[in-house]
From TrEMBL:
GO terms for cellular component: cytoskeleton. Pfam families: Septin (PF00735). The keyword Iron does not apply. InterPro entries: G_SEPTIN_dom, P-loop_NTPase, Septin. It comes from the Eukaryota. Residues 43-315 form the Septin-type G domain. It comes from Electrophorus electricus. This is Septin-type G domain-containing protein.
Length: 329
């Protein structure tokens, strides 16, 4: 009897199919998510968006509509009019945005002068130079012996490219820009001022743009080769079907069915900006902010910046070897 009592009191080993947590109680591994959330809330977030397109396509208005505040360059400029620059200028402005305790440093980069000249040959080069300069600046901070605990991130995470609503096909300047820049930055093309097209014209134009992108082997965001699993592939395939988004921007509110809504008023009625039956602004906002913002930053860091970093370090290594061999570059 005594032996039987001892046997009953001895702990039994946990089987393969049983969980140790159920035997010994709560460990707390899942609290790491809360720790990461608190740390991220303290540090805040950074997002750098570049808007590229010729004048008059509503770049400033769309950026203001995305963040529901005056964040574009023109919105904070004191004078109402500014002359068209003779060459492409790169101008950026930063804002601190806070929503429900989440802080984000938003930098909007504008490119006035793009596509506005008589001769637009190689007009993509100043933009390419600016993007590479941000990579170089980050690289130099990274390779410092006494580098900063947190390197300021000025790299361009997303480039919104505004396509004029011609209804025909991509222009040579559009193809040339996206062909070169898609290799160094995440490009999200959109059809600007989509309310100037009928729904049939919009669908036809979208298909023509997709054909031009395929014919010129231009990969826009989200790229297929960066889909991590089957779930991501399904979500991104749905997005790729809608790209380029046909969008309408407006920072004016109108009364529609007893509600105050952002929209554009015409003689035929009010175009509701956030109504997906009227335009696809909501899809663009969700992609940039609500679903893929972190993915845009991850691809910028792990793909585009990494390609630039490897190339630069190889150049430096080659130059060092040549100098050691007595053949200066």
């Amino acid at each position: 009897m005594a032996d039987a009592a001892k046997t009953a009191q001895q702990p039994q080993p946990v089987g393969r199919g049983e969980k140790a947590g159920a035997e010994f109680g709560y460990v707390g591994v899942d609290s790491v998510l809360e720790q990461m959330r608190r740390k991220a809330m303290k540090q805040g977030f950074e997002l750098n968006i570049m808007a590229v397109g010729q004048s008059g396509l509503g770049k400033s208005t769309l950026i203001n509509t995305l963040f529901k505040s005056k964040v574009s360059r023109r919105s904070v400029k004191p004078d109402d009019e500014e002359r068209i620059p003779k060459t492409i200028e790169i101008k950026s402005i930063s804002h601190d945005i806070e929503e429900k305790g989440v802080r984000m440093k938003l930098t909007v980069i504008d490119t006035p002068g793009f596509g506005d000249q008589i001769n637009n040959e190689n007009c993509w080069q100043p933009i390419m130079k600016f993007i590479n300069e941000q990579y170089e600046q980050y690289l130099q901070e990274e390779i410092n012996i006494n580098r900063k605990k947190r390197i300021p991130d000025t790299r361009v995470h997303c480039c919104i490219y505004f396509i004029p609503p011609t209804g025909h096909c991509l222009r040579p300047i559009d193809i040339e820009f996206m062909r070169h820049l898609s290799k160094v930055v995440n490009i999200v093309p959109i059809i600007a001022k989509a309310d100037t097209l009928t729904l049939e014209e919009r669908d036809f134009f979208r298909q023509k743009i997709k054909e031009d992108l395929r014919a010129n082997e231009i990969e826009v965001y989200p790229q297929k080769e960066f889909d991590e699993d089957a779930e991501d592939r399904v979500i991104n395939d749905n997005i790729r079907e809608k790209i380029p988004f046909a969008v309408v921007g407006s920072d004016q509110e109108y009364q529609v069915n007893g509600k105050r809504l952002l929209g554009r008023r015409t003689r035929w009625g009010t175009v509701e900006v956030e109504n997906t039956a009227h335009c696809e602004f909501a899809y663009l906002r969700d992609l940039l902010i609500r679903t893929h913002m972190q993915n845009l930053k991850d691809i910028t860091s792990s793909i585009h910046y990494e390609v630039y970093r490897v190339r630069r370090l190889n150049e430096d290594s080659t130059q060092t070897h040549d100098e050691e061999d007595g053949h200066p570059m």
